[in-house]
UniProtKB/TrEMBL annotation:
Phylogenetic classification of the source organism: Bacteria, Bacillati, Bacillota, Bacilli, Bacillales
InterPro entries recorded: HEPPP_synth_su1 (IPR009920)
Organism: Paenibacillus shunpengii
Protein name in UniProt: Heptaprenyl diphosphate synthase component 1
Length: 286
């Protein structure tokens, strides 16, 4: 079995002093990247030969997109440090994304540049459509989950043609599960951030369990940040999201153990799921 080194290789690009000192960077998408590397290694010779490179550049592009996602476009009159952080998010996202062109071009993998570029276009188009509908309050909780999972899958689907035909369906299903896990962890970790939770699962959970006055204030975006935090504590929103993650992980483990006959695949995927299985939400605010 090929040693999985992608997170360490990525540190050359993600551990950039200026970015780390002045702004936040997103979580490394380790579960999805590890899954991609595993299935590419089991695919045709060309896929296995370049599996590490393909996994690395996909991780960097995903981090570029996720970094841009963290930019707050609503705040006005930012302080100098906040403005610098915003600027570095823009530059950091561009920096991560640009590396994939450089790495693939240096390896002569121009066709993969085109494939990933198409994936980026699809992600941005779907994201824009989703956010436009969210702002008009036209998205249900179920639609939000389904579309968020698809957004987290999209770049990785660029490599479906390089995966063994008999394993494409399995790759897609497990990738969907890992994408759901990553989405839920993001929601858990930002549950107390009112702007980042707007029209997302925390928002829908509170909206479905509160009175008309609070619903009106939520819909009109009239709540103060501390009022939002109190609502998340009152309705145990972090616990709700954590339970959803735990149930999703358990359901996926049952599928892996009961529906896959290849025990190498079973053991490897279960190993990849360890970080999701043992995930603990951040401490509560008192």
């Amino acid at each position: 079995m090929t040693t999985y080194r992608v997170p360490n290789l990525a540190k050359k690009y993600t551990n950039y002093d200026m970015i780390q000192r002045h702004t936040e960077i997103p979580n490394f998408p380790d579960g999805r990247v590890r899954l991609l590397a595993f299935f590419l290694n089991r695919g045709p010779v060309r896929s296995a030969e370049h599996s590490e490179l393909y996994s690395l550049v996909t991780a960097l592009v995903q981090m570029g997109l996720d970094t841009h996602e963290m930019i707050d476009v609503h705040e006005e009159d930012l302080k100098e440090q906040e403005m610098r952080s915003r600027q570095l998010k823009v530059l950091g996202g561009d920096y991560f994304s640009a590396r994939f062109y450089q790495l693939l071009a240096a390896a002569g993998q121009i066709s993969v540049v085109a494939s990933l570029s198409e994936g980026i276009c699809i992600v941005n188009e779907r994201k824009m459509n989703l956010y436009n509908r969210m702002r008009r309050q036209l998205v249900t909780a179920e639609e939000y989950v389904n579309e968020s999972v698809q957004l987290k899958k999209q770049l990785f689907l660029s490599f479906q043609s390089m995966i063994s035909a008999e394993e494409v369906s399995l790759f897609d299903r497990v990738l969907s599960a890992f994408s759901l896990f990553d989405m839920l962890i993001e929601e858990i970790e930002h549950v107390r951030d009112m702007e980042r939770s707007r029209y997302r699962l925390a928002y829908y959970q509170i909206l479905g369990h509160t009175d008309s006055n609070v619903k009106g204030a939520l819909n009109r975006n009239e709540l103060e940040p501390n009022e939002w935090i109190q609502l998340t504590l009152k309705h145990r929103t972090q616990e709700f999201l954590t339970d959803k993650l735990r149930h999703s992980v358990n359901d996926t483990e049952r599928f892996i153990e009961n529906e896959i006959s290849d025990q190498v695949v079973v053991q490897e995927i279960l190993k990849m799921m360890e970080s999701y299985r043992t995930y603990r939400a951040p401490g509560k605010v008192v």
